[in-house]
Amino acid sequence: MVDWEDIRHFLAVAQSKSLAGAARALDVDRATVGRRLAALEATLDVRLVDRPSRSCRLTPVGAQVYKWAVDMEANAHGIADVVKAARTPIIGRVTLSAPPILAAHVFAAHMPRFRSEHPHIEISLSAHDAQSQPRKSETDLAVRLVPPDERDGTARTIGTMTFGLYAHRDYAHLDVPERWQFIAFDQRYADLPLQRWLLGVAGDRPVVSELNRISEHLIAARAGIGIAGLPCFIADRDRDLVRIYDDVPSFARDLCLVKRRDLRKTQAVRAVMDFIADVVAGNPDLAPGSPLSQYDDRLEQPARRAVG
């Protein structure tokens, strides 16, 4: 069995090209280096180093062994790094911005698990919709439904949020599509893709209520006010709601995880990024590439409808 200490001394000789140089590099005496080198050659039953005078030169076999020894040293350092990382807690504070519906219904529910895995990392989670995005200096990471500007930072798609039309199961006009009334956003959200899709579906039918948070649309639909465009991952599990499939094109938005461009990717930031991506990947209703994730833009309508 090859002794690692013999390998370490051999590496020093090969790199310094002399026994004396190796001894200085390892802070040992020259005799110890010579003894370790001789022990390795005896174990392998081959000469690794020629010693014509003061300098040392690798033999052809020695050169091959040297390449393997370098890899062994790198692996040894890798093992040490893994052990050190396991013993050293990751510490930091990471600010995360997300749409209110995701912050409340997805990420907040998984915070206890993250806290148990990373007790020394603090996540500051804030809810921001499309019209109230925080300044870049206020957040380290952001989950967005709107593709970010390149100046905002680096981004990657981690999932897809699919929307559908929903109403209370006892909605008075559920079986009479021409009498449907809709729940939409107000004028400030006229350019929001979800708003354009919803108004395109509504067509000439009236908007009965304007609310500016998806969570408010959910409450209004539960109350039986009208038809709402809601995330399927929430509405499909609501016993009071039914989904309307009456020839309605699907709508979906990519979930983008954005990292501030000037933010150094520390271990804490990496841990939070992995956590967010893992939570989304673990929710089958948010997984990218699902059957309903293809956005049909035929019904987009840029103009806002009046409240009826």
Automatic annotation (TrEMBL):
PROSITE patterns per the UniProt record, alphabetical: HTH_LYSR
Biased composition (Basic and acidic residues): 295-308
Biological processes per GO annotation: DNA-templated transcription
Methyltransferase among keywords: no
Keywords: DNA-binding, Transcription, Transcription regulation
GO terms, molecular function: DNA-binding transcription factor activity; sequence-specific DNA binding
All copies of domain HTH lysR-type, residue ranges: 2-59
Pfam families: HTH_1, LysR_substrate
Positions of the UniProt region annotated as Disordered: 288-308
Protein family (similarity comment): Belongs to the LysR transcriptional regulatory family.
PANTHER family: HTH-TYPE TRANSCRIPTIONAL REGULATOR, TRANSCRIPTIONAL REGULATORY PROTEIN
Protein name as catalogued: LysR family transcriptional regulator
Species of origin: Nitratireductor pacificus pht-3B
